[in-house]
User: What shape does this take?
Amino acid sequence: MMPKASDNRKTILHIIDALNVGGAQELLVLLSEKTPVADYRSMVCSIQPDRTVKGRIESKGVPVFCLNRTRPSIYDFINFISYFCNNVKDIISFCRKHGVNVVHCHLSDAEFTGIIGGWMYRADRIISTVHYPALLPVRQSWDFRNCLRIAATRILYNLTDAVVAVSDDVAEKLKAVFRIPSSKIKIIVNGIDVEAIHNTLPKTETLASVFAMPHDRIVTSIGRLMPPKGHSYLIEAMPDVVCSGNLKLILAGDGELRENLEEISRNIGIKDNVAFLGSRNDVADILAISEVFVLPSISEGTSLALLEAMAAAKPIVATDIPGNTAILKHGYNCLLVPPENPAKLAEAISLLLNSPEKAIEYGNNAYHDVKKNFSIDQTVKKLTALWN
Assistant: This one.
């Protein structure tokens, strides 16, 4: 039975750049379901037009308000300032209308507008969660935009009550790049609904939806098709793995590199063995039919896709980078390989495909670890303490 809401609940406003499919957005879906309604009233404000996961959040009983503003380039200075000011104005108005107590920001545009809006409104608490260790866009070191971003972010974070880092690596980068004092940084690792994923059984209809046949052996990677995710190295590894026509690489996620990655798969002759699914809401079903999960990232915070693969008890191949090594242990619940190394990726994937007993052992160990350490209930407990 749902606990009865009290009249003195705190109102939490989550502000996010957009509601596309991604790790930060998936966390909001889980928080919408798991935040105790007896004590908190949750709301979500999305700045940009992408509303892919809006319905999933609303299905949990959490209202979503979309500002529907497309972000202009900073070189279009007048429109950029207008975009920024209008967002701040709307956030202040929204906070006043709904009596918001806590403003919780996720991702960069939400930080710039939400922190200032929350500060001008005088919210009881202002929190920002940093989801990725890549704190700055990939630009030349002297690019004035990154210099401006660093200076502005240092000022902004002084207005917050806490900056949440989703991993130790993210916390260290916050201190190094933005000079945030350790006392302001709170490390709260993202969690997942472990049992919901673990109890998902394979469905025949899922095979058709991912362009696979019942006899196909499926290798899966889930994540945005963006440079830090390293998908090009995974695709380049596949010719050494594809020994017959019944192996399929499934890429669930969308992003700016899709056309480039599709071209790579055509050029190296494996386009029929790679399925680009785009954004999906049925990750648990996809994992249920998968034989091996691969995370080829160059940088990561705490990958929700990785935690979901662990909950599904899948054998994992991942890159040996800080965000992953904080969760995984080589030779126990995964195989770790150097980043940007297709040959090592191919070797590890082939080993797990050809060693079923080892694959089962790694998968079971991964499930027990994620159940113990990365439940969404633990995340919610730590966040509610911070909101209070």
About this structure: The longest helix spans residues 77-98. The two ends are 25 Å apart (CA to CA). The longest strand covers residues 10-16. The chain has 16 helices and 13 strands.
